[in-house]
Amino acid sequence: MAVVQKALIVAALLGAGAGLGSALFVLVTPGEQRTQEMLEEMTAQDPLRRAEAARTKELLLATLQEAAATQENVACRKNRLDGSGGGGTSA
Question: 68 in helix, strand or coil?
């Protein structure tokens, strides 16, 4: 009987601890809207990051436009950054 009583007490304490932890987690974490606002603020404040993101978008758009205009598989190119092409295989 004492073993059952002890097990119930341990289970109750663990349940209370888990409930308290969950409640604190809900109170501390920001909502989805606040999370989106924080992400926008972080990316909008760093000019270097903005420039990098813009350059990445330009490269992606140029690659997609080139891929649409040719029958060649542009994903297999060796040098993807300079945009020179160079064919898929080189000896």
Answer: helix
**How many residues can be counted in the chain?**
91
Query: In terms of C-beta distances under 8 Å and separation of at least 24 residues, what long-range contacts does 34-37 make, across chains too?
Result: none
Residues 80 and 63: beta-carbon distance below 8 Å: yes
Query: What confidence tens digit (pLDDT) does each residue in 8-36 have?
Result: 999 999 999 999 999 999 888 888 888 88
Tokens read off for 85? 């092409």
Q: Are the CB atoms for 31 and 39 separated by under 8 Å? A: no
pTM (2 d.p.): 0.39
Residue entry with tokens 């007490």: 9
